[in-house]
Every structure is written in C-alpha cells, then in structure tokens.
C-alpha cells in the first residue's frame, strides 16, 4: 500500500509548533501513536520538507513543548520508543532527534535505562545543547532508583552525545513537566514529587529545582503544596532577575508558591544534609 494513502487513514495529532526568525513554521505531528513527522512550511504556506521517524518499533511523543529550535534554525524534538533505533531495545527509551533547517537528519539518539523512560520537556541553549526532562523507573548511569518514578534530566551535545545525567526522586512518583534556562547558568525544572530529604505538605507536591547547566549538579530543590495530592507544576517562567513562577494543579485551593533563584535558607541544615546524601551520585 502506498505510504501516502496509508497515512491518510491514520489518526494524526498536532503535538508542537515553532516559528523561526524567517517566519517559517515547523509542525510536529503524531500518527496514531506510532510515528512522528516533522514538517517545515514556508511563511507563504508552501511545504519545504517532511521528516518521518522510522524504527522497528514505535516512536511516541508525550505532550507538547517537545520541539525546540536551536540558534542555527535546526529543529530538535524528543519522544520515547519501545522499539530499536540504533541496536538498542529496552522496555522504553528516550529519543532525541535533530533535523537541520534543510530537512536532513543530524542525529537521532536513543538513551535511558533498562527500565521504562519517557520524555516530558525540552530546552535548548545558545550552543545547541539539548536538555531533556522526563521520568524513569530505572537507574541512569551514576544513580540509583528511589522507587516509583524518578524525575530525570539528560544533557545532549549539539552533535548528539550524552554529556551528563541527573536523577532525583523519592518513593512515589516524581517528574519534571517544564524547564527553562537562565543567563545565570542555571537550568530550572518544575514538576511534581516528594523528594527524599525534603519536607512534604502531603502526597506529592509542587517541585522546583535549580541545576548547574554545565556540571549537571543539583543546586537546590524546593517543594510546596497542599495536604492533598498535587499534580504539581505544568508551566514555568523566569523573569530577568532569575525568579521562577510556576503554575499547575493542586489538591486544594489553598496552595501558592514562588521560588527565587537565590532562595533563603528555609530548609534546616539536617534536611540539606539528608537531601545531599540522597541525591549524590552513587
């Protein structure tokens, strides 16, 4: 069967859209949760090219916001796969793909643990490095799983190699849903969780972390929320001063939090030491 005809019969979903400095549009589609397409369209509406993922398994895209443009105008997107892209086949891996502005594949990377991994957010710096946030039920190199799902960040170079991994979590489900880089060199990541060593308001809380974008080390972490089950932060914005603003869903109407890039020492020294022990690379 002709692939063009076959695709018309599949259910497609728009998952992300970006516009470059020339007004050209990058459109990311998902076909019946089995294939991802990236289409570049001119500002006048003409199609330049289409790129399709291809594997022996499936490539999925989880949520929007998983498409970014680097300073050269190349497109980087993430997803996850239960198949094999480069001879690797685990329960579920993270996929990072870079497509040049001309439509050529620069790299496609399959990475993660031997357990289940998914990607949830993506940020790109001025050098073209990609920061991929997600979740895992396994253990990234240098870390041990805390239980349930852990929140992770993987930094990928402009050429497609892993530069560092970071994994944080507690005994429940922890995840990052949004990320943003700041000129201070911090990478801010927001989501939900109940990290070991931090006080919890009950269940899972709003989670906000600052990470050294060069070294990949956790600078600080903060939790806040209600006594109910908070789904946590889904949106994150930084101002020029480096203060972070998060928005999301709480288990109670009595929940509000803001955290600055240089927070006051609200956690006790014993809590800081416990957090350091639990988040130190094994």
Automatic annotation (TrEMBL):
Coiled coil: none
Feature: compositional bias, Basic residues: 253-262
Region (Disordered): 248-282
SUPFAM superfamilies in the cross-refs: NHL repeat
PANTHER family: CELL SURFACE GLYCOPROTEIN (S-LAYER PROTEIN)-LIKE PROTEIN, PHYTASE-LIKE DOMAIN-CONTAINING PROTEIN
Name the record gives this protein: CACNA1A protein
Source organism (scientific name): Symbiodinium natans
């Amino acid at each position: 069967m002709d692939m063009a005809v076959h695709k018309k019969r599949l259910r497609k979903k728009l998952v992300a859209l970006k516009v470059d400095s020339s007004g050209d549009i990058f459109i990311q589609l998902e076909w019946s949760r089995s294939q991802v397409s990236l289409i570049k369209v001119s500002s006048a509406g003409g199609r330049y090219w289409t790129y399709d993922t291809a594997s022996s398994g499936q490539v999925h895209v989880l949520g929007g916001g998983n498409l970014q443009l680097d300073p050269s105008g190349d497109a980087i997107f993430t997803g996850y796969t239960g198949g094999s892209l480069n001879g690797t086949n685990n329960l579920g891996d993270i996929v990072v793909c870079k497509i040049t502005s001309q439509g050529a594949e620069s790299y496609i990377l399959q990475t993660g643990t031997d357990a289940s991994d998914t990607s949830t957010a993506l940020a790109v710096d001025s050098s073209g490095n990609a920061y991929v946030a997600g979740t895992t039920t396994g253990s990234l190199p240098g870390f041990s799983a805390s239980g349930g799902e852990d929140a992770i960040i993987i930094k990928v170079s402009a050429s497609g190699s892993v530069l560092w991994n970071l994994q944080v979590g507690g005994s429940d489900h922890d995840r990052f849903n949004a990320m943003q880089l700041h000129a201070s060199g911090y990478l801010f990541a927001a989501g939900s969780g109940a990290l070991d060593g931090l006080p919890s308001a009950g269940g899972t809380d709003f989670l906000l972390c600052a990470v050294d974008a060069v070294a990949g080390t956790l600078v600080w972490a903060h939790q806040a929320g209600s006594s109910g089950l908070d789904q946590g932060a889904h949106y994150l914005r930084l101002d020029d001063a480096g203060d972070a603003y998060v928005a999301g869903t709480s288990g109670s109407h009595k929940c509000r939090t803001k955290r600055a890039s240089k927070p006051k020492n609200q956690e006790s020294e014993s809590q800081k030491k416990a957090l350091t022990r639990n988040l130190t690379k094994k």
